[in-house]
Amino acid sequence: MSNCQTSPKSRSTTVLLSAIAALLAVDVSVRLMDKEPAVQASEAVPVAYQPQVGLANPIHQREQMIDELQQIDSRLASLENRLKGNIRVEVMNFPKVDTEND
User: How far is CA 58 from the centre of its chain?
Assistant: First the structure.
C-alpha cells in the first residue's frame, strides 16, 4: 500500500462507484439470463414508414447542398441590392403623443 492517506470523501466515492458497478453487473447478468425480449411485439410503438432506398449517394447530397447554397446566395445578393438603394418606410399606425405631461 502507499503511504499517502485518502480522504473520507475519496473513500466514500470509491465505495459508491463500486456499488454502482456491482449493481450494473447484476443487471446485465439478469438481462442475459432472461430469454424473453425486453418489449413484446404488441407493446412496441409503431414507427412511421420510411423507405430506405439504400445508402445515400454522397455525390448527390453534395450537389443538392451546392444547389441550395447557390439559391441562398442569390437571395442574399437580392436583399443586399435592395438595402443599397433608398428604403421607403411608411408608418400606418402611430400612437398619439400625450403633450400634457411635457
Answer: 23
Furthest-apart CA pair in the chain: how many Å?
87
φ, ψ of residue 76 in degrees (nearest 5): -65, -40
Share of the chain above pLDDT 70, in %: 72
Q: What mean pLDDT value characterizes the chain?
A: 82
Q: What's the CA gap between 5 and 12, in Å, rounded?
A: 14
Q: 3-class SS at 64?
A: helix
* Cα 39 from Cα 56, distance rounded (Å): 31
Q: How far apart are CA 18 and CA 13, in angstroms?
A: 9
